[in-house]
Design a protein that fits this description.
34 helices, 542 residues, mainly alpha
Length: 542
């Protein structure tokens, strides 16, 4: 029998590996334990050997051992460790483990009385559930698994880390968030935030952040929870401290951002204004990694998107606008993916911060290289970058002053029209049509060329879409085009829209669509001569 040292720093041929796998069929417990250790040493640290042992059929043999009532705890632990090592291989090896049904067997191991085996099973599940193509729904298929995991969580540093990571990775739907809440995850996770071990408190924080994302019920529960005499929100805010790793600061900020957006805590709460917002602005600086800067900017955009006071505060905090402008500068040391992520994050911040205040919009528009970069990105091949650029332009286009001045020199509306001319994702079409609606206002220099380029039939088609926002923008754009326009434009609108569609919009369930349709009629029939001409032309239909 080869010694353990035989495997160090050498490539093991397939024929040898087959021998080691075949040796797992022995009925001698001591020999089996030794053989398992040999396989463990073989696969740890080598993806090639992981693949080879799986080709040789090691997984069915390990499963047989794991499900045998005669297997000792020591043997079970070795099997679980090998499975854990295989899970750390390639996506192909993880896919095969899934197909072989290993996940279900390892979840059964969580109920075993031997803590070493239980923890080895947890480490395997953590690796599988945190991989890129994680089978996130599997832990919820058996109703007993999640509550049992939550019960296991406080037992040791290993269970605290692994269970929190598994739950954070697998909790993706509102129903799953509510299930964790129902089974008492919050009071079990809260004390872990006070741990001095980052490997423990970070997964716990991740899990809380995942639970409250877009979930008002969970946000309310977290906001009202206490750990001893200390509110949970205070514990989370303490993790914004700049001495902690960036990922902890950013995840704490993300969690508090969710609570603020859900109105579980007020946007005016000092935790938000004096701690969360400054932390995010600080994490946007150039001395941070690209990943951290992108996450900080995205979270900051969400935090202030709907609050005017936060937008104003952010605009004067630590040179934020000029800091975010550096995201748009091309850097040789940035990959194409990093540059795209930075641009997208920058547009998100500029869109959020300029949503309401005229002075902020003016300051942003005057900041290089925003306008030129934004104009280029309206046609970017990357969908997320293009969407963020359009939304940024939409926020800036709310400015009456800028529509009359800066937009005339900088903004090319043709890429927006192209988006509506081709079938694009609906959120992109909504953003593009909303922006064009602003560019169609009476005082906009872009109004005439947009109308001449075929906007009328395009917006008439939008009024027939199932998406309520596209219908609204369609009728809104027509209303703007009809305002104080030539009679031929008014007549073209009515001919293109048709009286049948016009009256259909007057019975739409959406009140905003109804009001804009009435606004269109008002603009079409603004004078007696307009009424006479239209009645003569469309008397039968009306």
């Amino acid at each position: 029998m080869l010694s353990e040292k035989t495997f160090e720093d050498m490539d093991v041929e397939h024929s040898y590996i087959q021998v080691f796998v075949d040796n797992l069929s022995t009925s001698d417990p001591q020999q089996l334990l030794f053989n398992l250790k040999q396989v463990r040493n073989l696969v740890i640290g080598s993806n090639r050997n992981k693949t080879n042992v799986m080709i040789c059929g090691v997984v069915p043999k390990l499963l047989h051992i794991l499900t045998s009532e005669e297997s000792s705890s020591e043997i079970l632990v070795e099997c679980a460790v090998i499975m854990g090592s295989l899970a750390q291989g390639t996506e192909a090896t993880r896919s095969e483990l899934m197909e072989e049904g290993v996940m279900a067997i390892m979840m059964q191991g969580l109920a075993h009385s031997d803590q070493r085996f239980m923890e080895a099973c947890l480490r395997f599940l953590r690796t599988m559930c945190t991989s890129p193509n994680a089978p996130t729904e599997i832990i919820f298929q058996d109703e007993s698994v999640v509550p049992h995991m939550i019960q296991l969580l406080p037992r040791s540093a290993c269970t605290q880390e692994c269970v929190a990571k598994i739950l954070a990775s697998c909790c993706v739907t509102p129903e799953q968030q509510k299930l964790l809440l129902k089974h008492g995850a919050i009071p079990v996770l809260a004390p872990l935030l006070m741990s001095s071990v980052n490997k423990v408190r970070f997964p716990a924080l991740q899990c809380l952040s995942t639970m409250c994302l877009h979930n008002k019920l969970v946000c309310s529960a977290i906001a009202s929870a206490r750990c001893g005499d200390v509110p949970l929100t205070v514990l989370i805010s303490k993790l914004l401290c700049r001495s902690l790793p960036p990922e902890i600061q950013l995840t704490a900020a993300e969690c508090l951002c969710s609570l603020s957006r859900a109105k579980a805590i007020s946007p005016k709460d000092p935790i938000v204004i004096t701690k969360t917002l400054p932390c995010l602005v600080r994490m946007c600086r150039e001395d941070r990694s690209v990943r951290d800067r992108v996450m900080a900017a995205e979270t900051l955009a969400v935090l202030m998107e709907e609050d005017v006071d936060l937008q104003k505060t952010a605009s004067i905090t630590d040179h934020l606008i000029s800091t975010i402008a550096t995201y748009l500068q091309e850097r040789k040391n940035h990959s194409s993916e990093s540059s795209q992520d930075l641009k997208r994050a920058a547009f998100m911040v500029f869109a959020a911060i300029s949503a309401n205040d005229e002075e902020i919009r003016k300051k942003i528009i005057e900041t290089d290289p925003l306008m030129s970069t934004m104009e280029q990105c309206l046609s970017d091949e990357n969908y997320k970058v293009r969407l963020a650029a359009v939304r940024c332009l939409h926020s800036l286009s709310r400015s009456v002053q800028q529509l009359r001045t800066s937009f005339q020199d900088h903004v090319d509306w043709r890429p927006l029209m192209k988006i509506l001319q081709t079938e694009q994702p609906e959120d992109l079409m909504v953003a593009a049509s909303s922006t064009i609606c602003n560019l169609l206002l009476e005082f906009s220099p872009s109004k005439s060329p947009i109308v001449e380029s075929g906007a009328i039939p395009m917006f008439c088609r939008l009024t027939g879409r199932d998406n309520v926002y596209l219908r609204l923008n369609g009728i809104w754009g027509l209303m703007n085009m009809a305002f104080q326009s030539e009679q031929n434009i008014k007549n073209t609108i009515l001919v293109s829209l048709g009286t049948e569609q016009l009256f259909k919009l007057l019975t739409d369930d959406n009140v905003d669509i109804l009001m804009k349709t009435l606004g269109l009629l008002r603009n079409l029939l603004s004078s007696k001569s307009d009424i006479d001409i239209i009645m003569n032309s469309h008397n039968k239909g009306i």
